[in-house]
Design goal:
There is one protein chain. 18% of the residues lie in helices and 34% in strands. A 9-stranded antiparallel β-sheet has the order 7-8-9-10-19-16-15-12-13, covered by helices on one side. An 8-stranded parallel β-sheet has the order 28-27-26-25-22-21-20-29. Strands 30, 34, 35, 37, 38, 39 and 41 form a 7-stranded antiparallel β-sheet that branches. The chain starts with a strand and ends with a strand. Bound molecules: zinc ion. Zinc ion is lined by residues 372, 395, 397, 434, 436, 439, 441.
Length: 710
C-alpha cells in the first residue's frame, strides 16, 4: 500500500481509490486514522451552473486513479494522487483532481496541495473542501482549539459542530488544533495571500478547510495550485499548536513591519496605554453637557493614574447604525472637547464603521455600484437591531469605498482633532464575497477582500504619516489579516471560561489587544476573575464607563498600574507558558518529576453574564503566565482570582524559555518583584528548575522579573 513514513508520521493511501487509509503520529504513538476506520476521501468539490449545485467527492465517478510515491534529493517523500477523467452528471472526462502530499525527512509537518482541472461545458467550480476528512474525528475524543471570539477557545472532548470564516471573529487565524492525551494535531493553511476560506469540524461527520475559489461558479473555473495546508502532529495541545503557527506567521506580509517595538507606525501613545474607557458623547439637551462629559473622562484618567484611551460613540448627529457613512456634521462642541481630552494626554478614539453603507442614507444611490454583490448581483443586506439601518457591506476593492473611509479619517484627524480612530467590523466581520464583475477582482473567492482592506489601511497610515501626528488605528475583534494595518484589536465579547489565549500565544509582541468589559453588578469575585485572567494574557484592560463603582475601580486601577510597569513583557514580549502548579515544594524530591505531574488548583466560580444569559464562570483560583521580554528576561505573572488568601506552589524550568539565551542549569537568577510602584528589591535564587511558593492575599497580584545574575 502506498505510504509516506519518516518515523515521526505515517500517511497511507489506498492504491485503488487514492483515499487516506492511515494518519499515524508515530512519535506520540497516536492513531488518528487506520483500519478498521473507513478511508477518508480527502476532497469534496462544489460546482455551480447558475442555481444548479452539484457535489463531487473522491474518488469520483469513472476516475482513473493513480498513487505515486517518490523521494526527492532532500529526502522529502512526496505522494502524488491523481483522479483523471471524472464524469460530472453524464459529462464524460469533465474533471481531473491532483493532490500532492509531501513529508520532509525529519519533520512531522506534511504539506497538502490540490489542483482541479475542469473541462465541463456547463459547471464552474465554486468550493473546494480540502483536506476533507469525512467521518473524522470521532465525537468525544479530542479537544478542539479554535482561534475565534476574543482569545480563542478550547472545547473539551468536542462532539458539537464548529465552523468559522477567515478572516472574521469566527476564525481569526488560519488554523485549528485537535488534541488528546498530551498530543496535538494542528491543521493550518499556510496562505500568505489570505484567501477567503472557512473551516468546519463536525465530529462524526467531517473536518475540512473550505476554499471559495477565485471566479467561483463561472463556467470553466477550476483551481490552480494555491497554498499548502500543513498538518502537524506534535507534543502538547493548543499552546504548542499556536507556537508552530507562530513560527510561520511572523514571517508573513502582515508581520513584515516587525514586532511592536520596531513599529514606528504604531503610536507610542497606544503602546503606553494602561486602561481604556468607553463613553458616548451627549446630545444637545442631555443632562450631561459636553464639558461635563469630557471632565468625567479626564477625572477618571486622573483617578486611574495611568495613560488612558477612550472609545467615543454617538459623536455624530446620525443615530448609531443609521445613515452611514454620513458621520458629519458632528454634534455641537465635539472638536472642542476632543481637544481637551488630547491636551490631557488621553487617546481619544471616535467610532466609525469601515464596512457598511446604509441603504437609507441620502448618499446611497451613488454607492450602489461599489457595494459588494451576491452571486445574483444584488447588494448584501445586514440588519443589527430593530433600530438598525438597512446596512450594505461595501466592496473593499472599490475606489469609492476606500476614498470614503480615508476621507472620513482625514476629517476626524483634521476637523475633530482626534488622535485615534476605531474602524468597526474590519477584523470582526467576514468577507461579503463579491461577485460584481465590474470591480476588477476575481469573482466570489480569492484574496481581494483582505487585499482591498490592505490598500485602504495603508492609505490611512500614509495619511497619518503626512499629518506628522500620532494617530492610533484600531478595529473590532482580533484578526491576523489586519495586523499591519490596525494597531490594536478590540476584544469586546463577553468572557467565557473555556477561552484560551491563542491570539497571544501566536502574536504577542506583534499585535495588541484591548478591553476587558465585564459587569460590576455580579459581585467583585466575578469582576476579579475576568480582569485578572485578561491581565495575565496581555489585554490592555478596561473599555468600561468612566464611573466604575468601587471596589471594581480600585482593582482595575491596580491592574492598570501593573500593566504600565510591565510593558516590556505584556506589550513587547512573548507569552511563552505558565507556571506549573505542584504540591508542596518541601515534599518534592525531584523537580523534573514535579513538573511532569501538575497538581490540581482549587477553582472559583461566579456569575459571568453571557449575551444576556446568566451563566456561571469557573476558573482556577490562581492563574499564571510566563512572558519573555526582548532582553530575554522572564516575567512571572500570578493572580489570585479568589477573595481568600491562597498559597500557590509552582514550578518552572527557566532553561526551557531560553532565558537570555543561556544554559541555566547552574546559573544564579535574580528575582525582582514588580508592583504598582515599580521594581522592588531583587533577591538571588539558585538556577535550574525553580520550585516556588507564593503567598497571595485575596485578589493578590504577584509579578517577578527574572534575570540571570550578571
Ligand atoms: Zn467587488
Amino acid at each position: 500500500m502506498p505510504h509516506l513514513d519518516n518515523s515521526l508520521v505515517r500517511l497511507g493511501f489506498d492504491a485503488h481509490t487514492g483515499m487516506l487509509t492511515h494518519l499515524l503520529d508515530l512519535e506520540g504513538e497516536v492513531v488518528h486514522v487506520a483500519p478498521p476506520d473507513a478511508p477518508r476521501a480527502l476532497w469534496k468539490l462544489t460546482f455551480h451552473a447558475g442555481t444548479d449545485v452539484q457535489h463531487v467527492s473522491a474518488p469520483g465517478e469513472d476516475a482513473a486513479v493513480s498513487v505515486e510515491v517518490k523521494t526527492d534529493n532532500a529526502g522529502t517523500q512526496i505522494a502524488t494522487l491523481t483522479w483523471r477523467g471524472i464524469t460530472l452528471r453524464n459529462e464524460k472526462d469533465a474533471l481531473d483532481v491532483v493532490v500532492t502530499v509531501s513529508l520532509p525527512k525529519a519533520l512531522a509537518a506534511s504539506e497538502w496541495r490540490i489542483r482541479v482541472a475542469n473541462r465541463s461545458t456547463r459547471y464552474g467550480l465554486s468550493e473546494v473542501a480540502f483536506p476533507w476528512f469525512n467521518g473524522w474525528p470521532e465525537p468525544n475524543r479530542y479537544d478542539l482549539a479554535v482561534p475565534w471570539y476574543n482569545w480563542g477557545r478550547n472545547y473539551k472532548k468536542v462532539a458539537d459542530k464548529h465552523q468559522g470564516e477567515f478572516s472574521s471573529y469566527t476564525w481569526s487565524m488560519q488554523f485549528f488544533v485537535l488534541s488528546a492525551g498530551g498530543r496535538g494535531i494542528s491543521i493550518a493553511a499556510h496562505d500568505s495571500r489570505q484567501f477567503y476560506k472557512k473551516y468546519v469540524v463536525d465530529p462524526g461527520n467531517e473536518t475540512a478547510m473550505v476554499l471559495l475559489v477565485p471566479n467561483a461558479g463561472m463556467p470553466g473555473t477550476g483551481l490552480d495550485e494555491t497554498y499548502p495546508i500543513v498538518i502537524n502532529t506534535h507534543a502538547g495541545g493548543w499552546f504548542e499548536g499556536c507556537k508552530l503557527f507562530r513560527s510561520w506567521a511572523i514571517k508573513q506580509p502582515w508581520t513584515a513591519k516587525g514586532p511592536i517595538s520596531q513599529r514606528s507606525d504604531v503610536p507610542r501613545s497606544l503602546k503606553d496605554i494602561g486602561l481604556w474607557l468607553i463613553s458616548s458623547y451627549p446630545s444637545p439637551g442631555d443632562k450631561t453637557t459636553p464639558k461635563a462629559w469630557a471632565d468625567e473622562i479626564i477625572d477618571a484618567a486622573h483617578c486611574y493614574d495611568v495613560p488612558v484611551g477612550v472609545h467615543i460613540y454617538q459623536w455624530h448627529e446620525i443615530p448609531f447604525d443609521n445613515h452611514y457613512p454620513e458621520y458629519f456634521p458632528t454634534k455641537p462642541g465635539f472638536a472642542e472637547q476632543v481637544r481637551r481630552l488630547v491636551d490631557a494626554g488621553i487617546v481619544a478614539m471616535p467610532y466609525i464603521n469601515a464596512r457598511l453603507w446604509d441603504s437609507q442614507a441620502k448618499s446611497y444611490p451613488g454607492a450602489i455600484p461599489s457595494a459588494a454583490k451576491d452571486p445574483a448581483g444584488v447588494p448584501y443586506l445586514e440588519i443589527y437591531s430593530p433600530q438598525s439601518g438597512r446596512l450594505v457591506p461595501m466592496c473593499t476593492q472599490t475606489k469609492l469605498w476606500q476614498d470614503t473611509v480615508v476621507e472620513l479619517c482625514r476629517r476626524i484627524i483634521e476637523e475633530v482633532g482626534a488622535n485615534a480612530i476605531y474602524l468597526d467590523q474590519v477584523a470582526a466581520m467576514p468577507a461579503a464575497p463579491c461577485y460584481d464583475p465590474t470591480h476588477g477582482h476575481t469573482i466570489g473567492g480569492g484574496d481581494h477582500w483582505h487585499a482591498g482592506y490592505r490598500i485602504m489601511l495603508n492609505r490611512i497610515k500614509d495619511l497619518i504619516a503626512r499629518t506628522g501626528r500620532e494617530v492610533v488605528i484600531t478595529t473590532e475583534n482580533p484578526g491576523d489579516a489586519h495586523i499591519d494595518g490596525c494597531d490594536a484589536f478590540l476584544i469586546w465579547n463577553p468572557r467565557a471560561d473555556d477561552e484560551v489565549p491563542m491570539m497571544t500565544a501566536v502574536y504577542s509582541g506583534y499585535a495588541l489587544y484591548f478591553s476587558s468589559p465585564h459587569v460590576t453588578d455580579q459581585g467583585l469575585q466575578s469582576f476579579v476573575m475576568a480582569q485578572g485572567r485578561d491581565f495575565i494574557w496581555g489585554s490592555q484592560l478596561g473599555w468600561m464607563s468612566p464611573q466604575l463603582p468601587q471596589p471594581c475601580m480600585e482593582y482595575l486601577r491596580t491592574l492598570g498600574k501593573c500593566r504600565v510597569q510591565t510593558r516590556k513583557f505584556l506589550t513587547y514580549g512573548e507569552l511563552v507558558g505558565e507556571l506549573v502548579p505542584i504540591s508542596d515544594p518541601s515534599k518534592v524530591k525531584d523537580a523534573a518529576e514535579a513538573l511532569a505531574h501538575p497538581a490540581s488548583v482549587p477553582t472559583v466560580s461566579a456569575v459571568w453574564p453571557w449575551w444576556g444569559q446568566i451563566k456561571p464562570g469557573t476558573l482556577p483560583a490562581v492563574m499564571s503566565s510566563i512572558w519573555r521580554a526582548e532582553d530575554g528576561h522572564l516575567g512571572l505573572f500570578i493572580v489570585n482570582l479568589s477573595e481568600q488568601e491562597r498559597t500557590f506552589h509552582c514550578a518552572y524550568d527557566p532553561a526551557r524559555y531560553g532565558l537570555a539565551g543561556r544554559t541555566l542549569t547552574d546559573a544564579k537568577l535574580l528575582y525582582t518583584p514588580i508592583t504598582t510602584d515599580g521594581p522592588g528589591k531583587s533577591v538571588q535564587a539558585s538556577g535550574g528548575v525553580q520550585l516556588r511558593t507564593e503567598k497571595l492575599p485575596p485578589r493578590g497580584v504577584v509579578i517577578y522579573e527574572v534575570a540571570p545574575e550578571s
